[in-house]
Amino acid sequence: MFTVHTESTFETTHATATAPQIVITTSCHCTYANQTFPSESVIYNKTDKAGWCYFAYCSSSCVSEITHKPCPQTTTVPVSTVPHDCTDVNRKNGDSWNEECTTKNCINGNVTTTPVVCDPADSVIPTCVNGLKPEKVYYNNGCCTKYVCPYCDVSMCQNGSCTQESCIYNASDGSRHVLKDGEKYNYKCETITCRQINGSFVTEKNNTECPYSSSQDCGPGFEYVQREGECCGTCTQVACIYVAPNNTRQTLKDGEVHRYTCETVTCHELNGLFVTEKTIRECPSLSSLNCGPGFEYMKKESECCETCTQVACIYDAPDNTRHVLKDGEEYKYKCETVSCRQLNGSFVTVKTNTECPYSSSQDCGPGFEYEKKEGECCGSCTQVSCIYDAPDNTTHTLKHGEVHSYTCETVTCHQMNGSFITEKTKSECHYLSSQDCGPGFEYVKREGECCGTCTQDACIYDAPNNTRQTLKDGEVHRYTCETVTCHEFNGLFVTEKIKTECPYLSSQDCGPGFEYEKKEGECCGTCTQDACIYDAPDNTRHVLKDGNEYNFKCMNATCLKRNGTFMTIESFKQCPPFNPDDCVPGTEQFDKDGCCKICELSNCVLKKNVTRLHVNNCTSIEDVEVTSCTGHCDDGSMYSMEENIMMHSCSCCQEEKFSERQVTLKCANSSEILHDYMYVESCSCTPTKCEEDTGKNLAMTDAPTINPYH
Questions:
Q1: Contact predicate 55/43, CB 8 Å
Q2: What percentage of the chain's residues is helix, strand, coil (to nearest 5)?
Q3: How far apart are CA 487 and CA 471, in angstroms?
Q4: Is 505 in contact with 492 (CB distance < 8 Å)?
């Protein structure tokens, strides 16, 4: 491959500060096989298979000029400092092989051909002592011949006897070959080797393994070719092979040209040899120092050499200063702002006059003052105090050291190195929810306050059983010997405790017939009856133990204890029926013995009484109201003159209207039954038949009665 290098020498002169002028002086040289050849020098001499010599020359303009002519049989190996393989025949440097009665060698990328040299003495036909006709045999792979006597070479005969000194090989084409020990004969795909083993000569046959069988086994730019009569084919170059700058291997046909960045590649075929000509453009050795302001020496994409490329805007300010601005960068000079913009690869300077946002302190916000420095276009608002946004969405300003307190936080203003810093101190609340409050309290947070409080909403009471109780307003709890009531007065909860005052503390506090008794778990004891208390008709009170009696007039009182209950049984002398309701008021009195009552009778009336009913050993469960008719009705006797008899008129105080009612009775066997009884609704005097008066008075007899209330 040929490469043309162009070198340039740069001389820089500066006509102005921004536009350097470059003068370029160019020199060149040719490169082949990694060697550099100056102009007007020989590059190489090469020989092809047909015996033609090729001459490459680097001209004064660095153009490779190639000429060819017939050359001697032996080709001089061109001098090369770096060994190369023979890629056109796919052989390594230093390889040697036989081909068509020639010996070929690969030396530094060139193939040399040397004809096989035969011994001139082999042309003499000997006379065989055995009388046989000499035979023509081949050696040196069939390139040389000689005549030998069958089975015995005259030169081998000593003292009339023959000694074998070589192998004799009869080829399949009818030729005979004599091979020395170690000598080989190649015929098509067969290799015959002569070996001397223990004084005997043995012929070994080996079939040749071909390295290539098709073009697929060849590399790019090569094709598989097998000549007639040869055992194996070879890979023959049919195109130029070139490794491009992008590290890809390219193949070029004869005359084909490929252009890449900084180099041009052309393929030439010269008498079967493929030569790659590569021309490389040489770039000047400069740097950004050779460029003006806003320019850098750099290589653009898809370009070969670096150039002075603009990378920034150049701005000459009114104060005669020059400024280099990058894309997007700004420069301000008083009220003028210069911006650099890159548009479609070009750098454009945009000038804008500044509109001042502030003209006085009125344009500044709270905590700021207007300030304009000398030489500046616009003034600015400078902070002179702390600015604090309170929780109530109001904004406040604080001077240095000033302290303000707001809901839940205290704010202090500090000035440090010209900066104003607002220090906030948050309040810590002791209570956050009702869970933080104790029993009887609830969490309340009023609007505008930072922290909530635990407000009492019930009375708190430690009960005698060591438990803490809460009571709402008006709620009452009762415990042993104590009653607790909760009251709320103007938001205050007051617990009122009332101790139980026991009416009896000992037997001395109990009346006659009672003794003091206090049960476990009860607050107060009681007076339990242990005798009958009998109030006699003479207004005297008597204490009667069980079985004791008291007598007064027509009455006898006896104390009995039944099932733990004390009762007084009174026995009276039987008096005629007496109902005070039948009496005219104020007419009641005792008879002369003071035992029975008598009175002036009144008219018939309805009488009501509440008692327990006793029927057949069964007693009503509850008290029953029993009504009856009582009172006096007019009656009389008079003589009838007509009838000449005594006429009697009688009337009876009896029920006028009644109804039937039911009551539940409990019997001695604990069973319960329903019992019907008559209930008198109203009474009246009803005429009735008079009975004959017997003239007999009812005798008064003693009959006992029970007073269950004593």
A1: no
A2: 5, 50, 45
A3: 9
A4: no
Residue 290 main-chain phi, psi, to 5 deg: -80, -5
The whole-angstrom distance between residue 246's C-alpha and the CA centroid of its chain comes to 48
| Cβ count within 10 A of residue 139 | 22
Contacts of 48 (CB under 8 A, 6+ apart): 54, 271, 272, 273
Q: How close are the terminal C-alpha atoms of the chain, in Å?
A: 154
At 21, list the tokens.
Answer: 């002028």
Q: Which residues sit opposite 682 in a β-bridge? A: 657
**pTM exceeding 0.85:** no
In contact, 349 and 342? CB cutoff 8 Å? no
Asked if 37 contacts 29 with a C-beta cutoff of 8 angstroms, the reply is yes
413 Cβ contact partners less than 8 Å away, ≥ 6 residues apart? 385, 386, 388, 398, 399, 400, 401, 402, 403, 420, 421, 422, 423
Q: How far is CA 369 from the centre of its chain?
A: 50
Residue whose token pair is 């009702």: 434
Inform me whether the pLDDT recorded for 70 exceeds 60.
no
**∠ CA 352-358-359, rounded to 5°:** 105
The closest of 439, 388, 436 to 412, measured between CA atoms, is 388
Q: Are the beta carbons of 115 and 101 closer than 8 angstroms?
A: yes
Contacts of 324 (CB under 8 A, 6+ apart): 293, 294, 312, 313, 314, 315
Radius of gyration of the chain (CA): 77
Sheet of 102-107: strands edge to edge?
Answer: 96-98, 102-107, 110-115
For 625, the token pair is: 């109201």
CA–CA distances in Å: residue 444 to residues 392, 407, 430, 437, 492: 20, 16, 12, 10, 16
- Say which residues have a Cβ less than 8 Å from residue 335's Cβ, sequence separation at least 6: 353, 354, 356, 377, 378
> What are the pLDDT digits (tens) for 394-430?
888 888 888 888 778 888 999 888 888 888 888 888 8
Report whether pLDDT(183) > 80.
yes
